């Protein structure tokens, strides 16, 4: 789906945001892209959709170089930036103007998503609140049925019921031919949807791993202060410490994405080393 | 639905499906919700539900009619009960035995209490049994 090879990029030659970056994203998955402020999440997404061009290396979407912006690539990709622009058009007018660029656009699905999101169909987009505008564009992006759907902080500005609707709609929109990439700081909004975590840190992709593998190898738990020396990473909590430990017993614990993210971006290498070990076939 | 944190979500969804079958809400040869519909109602990744259905297929609780959907197998209730019984005997019973042993509880006493419990809670169902 998306193949990034040896990509280097920066807004100026002196300070590169990425150096020799490699990343492969596949269809049938929902990727969660995490990174600190300024780590380059949005810039990475812009490279993927051809809004900026790499200084070196390549970024291909379905085999086509993103920065060349071939129509064949653009009609099969939809990008929802964090700050959206909406014209003063109603839903129907927006469809008339924009949908022809997307051959697989499903108009009926678009209106269905709008009503699920409680977005009025007669009103002009630009007159709506930020949250309503965002939901309208998310509904449109999902209805385009492009094989690649990229969203930058989609849950920002969404109210509480809309977040539930968002999760329902994304769950219904993933097919085995689709690749959904969501960059977010609000991991709790999405933690049962994301199946693979990608973390950008220090100009590199420091993690690209399925949550299944992560929970197979690491345990996330709260331990008493006295047991902290066995942990790979700990954070103070109300009772004892929230900790990441190697999963030696094969027990399941839910991946605490925030804790894992903090561990990785604090420069703790023991966690990533365990995750980077080659995959072994399960022998039992 | 709120998920427990100490068990994989796909297993919790499997338990939910098995509950529906034991409760008789989904009967033998009934079509069950599609992967997508169940993913939407639980707000989870469809791959998670796919994993649930794959496991239930291996356990012969459900089967796949290609292109039509997933259906409850004729002997799903027995399969689910057999699995749960196995799990109870493997996991819960040893803990129960340990307590009986440590607290020196007489097995006859347990037997009496069990009979009383049955009549108190399941009287109507016992009468129905031949």
Automatic annotation (TrEMBL), chain A:
Record key words, sorted: ATP-binding, Nucleotide-binding, Transport
Highest taxon, organism lineage: Bacteria
Spans traversing the lipid bilayer: none
Domain ABC transporter span(s) in chain numbering: 2-227
InterPro entries tied to this protein: AAA+_ATPase, ABC_transporter-like_ATP-bd, ABC_Transporter_VariousFunc, P-loop_NTPase
UniProt keyword annotation of Magnesium present: no
Keyword ATP-binding: yes
Residues making up the signal peptide according to the UniProt record: none
SMART domains named among the record's database cross-references: AAA
MF-aspect GO terms: ATP binding; ATP hydrolysis activity
Protein name (Swiss-Prot/TrEMBL): ABC-2 type transport system ATP-binding protein
UniProtKB/TrEMBL annotation, chain B:
PROSITE patterns documented for this protein: HTH_GNTR (PS50949)
Signal peptide: none
Top-level taxonomic group: Bacteria
InterPro entries: Tscrpt_reg_HTH_GntR, WH-like_DNA-bd_sf, WH_DNA-bd_sf
Coiled-coil features, chain-numbered ranges: none
Keyword Iron included in the entry's annotation: no
Keywords: DNA-binding, Transcription, Transcription regulation
The HTH gntR-type domain, residue ranges: 7-75
Residues spanning the membrane: none
DNA-binding as UniProt keyword: yes
Pfam family, one: GntR
Listed GO MF terms: DNA binding; DNA-binding transcription factor activity
Protein name: GntR family transcriptional regulator
Organism from which the protein derives: Pontibacter ramchanderi
Lineage: Bacteria, Pseudomonadati, Bacteroidota, Cytophagia, Cytophagales
